[in-house]
Amino acid sequence: MQHSKQKILLVEDEEHLLEAIKLNLELEGYKVSTATDGKKALKIYKEERFNLIILDVMIPEIDGFQVAETIRLENSDIPIMFLTAKNTSEDRVTGLKKGADDYLVKPFNLEELILRVGILVRRSLTGDELKELTTYKIGDKTIDFKSFELRQDNEVVAALTKKETMLLKLLIERRGEAVSREQILETVWNYDVYPSTRTIDNFILTFRKYFEPDQKNPIYFHSIRGVGYKFTDPNKD
C-alpha cells in the first residue's frame, strides 16, 4: 500500500531505533521527517504539514510531553503517538492528558507500529475529508451534518444521532467503495466500544428506512457479505 502524500514527523533520540522506524515507514510509502530532540521537532512541525507525529517521551531539550502540549495549543486534530519505555498507568494518563491518540511501549513490534500508524493516518485523512461535508442530498431528503437533521422540502423529518451522522459521512465520502467493519470501528466508534455486526446492520436498516424507495431492493445502502458496507448514489455516480 502506498502513502506517498502522507507525511509523518518522527521524533526519537535513539539513532538506531530512529533509522529502523524511518526505514519501515518509508517502505510503506510514507514521507518521513525526523528530529532527535524536542526543540528541533517543534521547528520542523512549524515548517511543514504532517498527517501524524510519532513522539518519544524522553528526548533532549524539550521532552515529548511538552512538545505534544505545545502542538495541541494550536492543533487539536493532528494525531500524536507517544513512544515510551515507561509502562505505568500514570504515564499513560499523562500522555492522554497531553493529547496523545495512541501510546506504544518499548520494546515494540515494528509490524504493530505500522498497523497503528495506518489507523491514525487514515483517521486524520478521513477527518479532513469529513470536515468539508456539511450537507448531502439523497433522493428527496437532505442530511444536515451540522444540525444532525434530516430534511425534506425544508422540513425536519428526523433527528439523527451522532453515530448515525458519522457513519453516513463515512459511507458518503467513500461512495462506491466497500467500507470494512474495521474502518467503521476506527472512524465512527474509535475503538471505544466494539459494536456487533448486528449493531452496524441496524444502522444500515435505519438508513434504508430513511432513504430507500424500496427497502428490500436498496439502491443506496448495501451490505457486502464478508466485507462490509457500501453507499452508492445513482444520481451522482
How does this model look, in words?
By secondary structure, the chain is of the alpha/beta class. The chain has eight helices and twelve strands. The protein has helices at residues 15-27, 38-47, 64-74, 89-97, 110-131, 162-173, 181-189, 197-211; strands at 7-11, 31-35, 52-56, 80-84, 102-105, 135-138, 141-144, 149-152, 155-159, 178-180, 221-224, 228-231. A five-stranded parallel beta sheet has the order 2-1-3-4-5, with helices on both faces. It has a four-stranded antiparallel beta sheet with strand order 6-7-8-9, with no helix packed on it. A three-stranded antiparallel beta sheet has the order 10-12-11. Helix 6 (162-173) packs across helix 7. The radius of gyration is 21 Å and the shape is elongated. The protein starts with 6 loop residues before the first strand and ends in a 6-residue tail after the last strand.
